[in-house]
Amino acid sequence: MMISELQMKEIISVETGQRLGHLSDLEVDVERGRILALIVSAKGKMMGLFGKEEEIVIPWETIVTIGEDVILVKNVTKPVVYPEQKVE
Fold first, then answer.
1. Exposure of 67 by Cβ count < 10 A (0-12 exposed, 13-18 middle, 19+ buried)?
2. Is 81 contained in some domain?
3. Where in this chain does the record put each PRC-barrel domain (predicted)?
4. Domain count, the chain
5. Can you give the CATH number for the domain in which 11 is found?
6. Using CA atoms, how far apart are residues 28 and 45, in angstroms rounded to an integer?
7. What is the dihedral sign for C-alpha 46, 47, 49, 50?
8. What's the domain range around 59?
9. CB 12 within 8 A of CB 62
10. Residue 28, CA distances (Å) to 18, 32, 47, 69, 84 in order
11. How confident is the model at residue 50 (pLDDT cuts 50, 70, 90)?
12. How far apart are CA 8 and CA 27, in angstroms?
């Protein structure tokens, strides 16, 4: 499956039915060639003058199924905003 196909699917929480948004990026382990997480742009945010758009990280393990039109995820009733990277 291509990333462009995944981007067309809406991501939905199975517990609440909440629409989380659409895939904006992937977190990938390049050494192992595996997807670690889906990155979803938080809906309702505006880019540009109104600030940085927030992202929701959905770990790969929380995906229930990838269907024709949707990606169903579990344990994302309270989405975690992507943490800032600490530079050491």
1. exposed
2. no
3. 3-76
4. 1
5. 2.30.30.240
6. 25
7. positive
8. 3-73
9. no
10. 25, 9, 25, 23, 17
11. low
12. 18
Residue 39 CB contacts under 8 Å (≥ 6 apart), including other chains: 23, 24, 25, 26, 27, 55, 56, 57, 58, 82
**Residue 67 falls within a domain, yes or no?**
yes
- Does 60 reside within a domain? yes
Mean pLDDT of the region 56-78: 87
| SS3 per-residue string spanning the chain | CCHHHHHCCEEEECCCCCEEEEEEEEEEECCCCEEEEEEEECCCCCCHHHCCCCEEEEEHHHEEEECCCEEEECCCCCCCECCCCCCC
Q: How many CA atoms lie within 13 A of 61 on its CB side?
A: 1
Residue 37 counted as domain residue: yes
Strand 10-13 and strand 70-73: the pairing is parallel
What's the whole-model pTM score?
0.70
